[in-house]
Amino acid sequence: MLRSGDIMFRKGNYHHTMIISDPKTFESYASYKQVDSHDIEVIHAASVDSAVFREDINIETGEISGNNFTFYRPADPRLRFGIEFAKIWSRYRTGKADETRGAITQYSYNQLNASGADMSRYSGVQQWLHSGHNPPLEFDGLYRAFKWATRQRTGFSNNRGTTCCAFITACFQASCIVDLVNSNYPKLYKGFEILKALRGNKLPKEQRINNHVVLGGKKKKISHRPLRQYSNAGGFSERFSVDDYCRFVTKEIIGREKSLSEVFPPALLVDAKYNYSANFESMIRRVGSGWHKIMKIGCEQGGGSLAIKRAQNRD
User: Fold this and answer.
1) 287 CB-near residues (< 8 Å, 6+ apart)
2) Cβ 170 vs Cβ 281: under 8 Å
3) Which residues contact 11 (CB under 8 A, 6 or more apart)?
4) Residue by residue, what is the 3-state secondary structure of the chain?
5) What's 295's DSSP letter?
6) DSSP conformation class of 213
7) What is the pTM of this model?
8) Can you tell me the distance from the alpha carbon of 7 to that of 104, in angstroms, rounded to the nearest whole number?
9) Dist. CA 256–CA 270, nearest whole Å
């Protein structure tokens, strides 16, 4: 039976990450056969010319179009607030910004500087997608997890936007930080202020915006601004590892040291801002990731009917 808070990956022409906000009638293997509707309400950064929305998607239509869907359930209690952050930071498509929840978070795509170089966060994610590697959780990733966790009644990103996998990863990392402090907001904010003070200095904003590199077979101009090597400031000293910073800040706010692996389950040991769906699903399906697989829905060759494949708890 599907639940609110389960992660859903859609894979076809693109790999897309979503979180279920309401399974509707699509609650179990048996129930889908008994109803005409195959809608599920999800929260996702709807791609390209869109934003972070809460809306229905039709599983059967998606399957007929050549997509398959894989569902994973959070098994680690530290992940229980992920859906709450997703709800806070999303809107229905008819929704508007308000003073208590901030601006609608746009999908970060095709934001150009004066010379035509792409400075959208999409480009930074694509660089890691093409590398095939996991963007490691280092100082800036830890700092951002605390920053996102403090935004409990404000927008996720007012100006720069996000991408699908980065958004869902951030929701669950923020959940882990809230769990760490047992929902004590003053402790949470203190941790954020400590890490903010320990952060190094970025290159000047104008320099990151205006300088660019040329990447890929299409020789696309990419501004330095979205690229991790220019955007992540790091801690104030290279003598300390991210685990050192993590142990320090946790000792300051909860009275005992905790390492990164004690704060986050294995699938979240990633720089969320640059995470991409193929990497996230690869990490989630590993034994002990913090999630387990619920089911997979695939497209049967030559047919338009749903093919539901029962899955073991773990691959």
Assistant:
1) 314, 315
2) no
3) 67, 68, 69, 70, 277
4) CCCCCCEEEEECCCEEEEEEEECCCCCCCCHHHHCCCCEEEEEEECCCCCEEEEEEEEHHHHHHCCCEEEEEEECCHHHCCHHHHHHHHCEECCCCCECCCECCCEECCCCECCCCCECCHHHHHHHHHHHCCCCCCCHHHHHHHHHHHHCCCCCCCCCCCECHHHHHHHHHHHHHHHHHCCCCHHHHHHHHHHHHHHECCCCCHHHHHHCEEEECCCCEEEECCCCHHHHCCCECCCCCCHHHHHHHHHHHHHCCCCCHHHHCCHHHCCCHHHCCHHHHHHHHCCCCCCEEEEEEEEECCCCCCEEEEECCCCC
5) E
6) E
7) 0.92
8) 22
9) 23
Give the chain's end-to-end CA distance (angstroms, integer): 19
Report the C-alpha gap between 204 and 230 in whole angstroms: 10
Give the angle 244-233-198 at the CA atoms, nearest 5°: 45
**Residue 5 is encoded by which pair of tokens?**
């808070």
Dihedral in degrees, nearest 10, Cα atoms 63, 68, 70, 71: -20
What would the pLDDT profile of 213-245 be if each residue is shown by its tens digit?
998 878 899 999 999 999 999 999 999 999 999
- Partners of 199 in beta bridges: 235
Q: How many CB atoms lie within 10 A of CB 310?
A: 9
CA atoms within 13 Å, Cβ hemisphere of 238: 1
Tell me, what amino acid is at 246? C
pLDDT in tens, 88-101: 999 998 766 666 67
Compute the distance between CA of residue 232 and CA of residue 49 in angstroms, rounded to an integer.
26
Helix, strand or coil, per DSSP, at residue 222: strand
Q: Helices 242-254 and 139-150: crossing angle, nearest 10°?
A: 30
- Which residue(s) pair with 290 in the sheet? none
Q: What is the DSSP letter of 12?
A: S
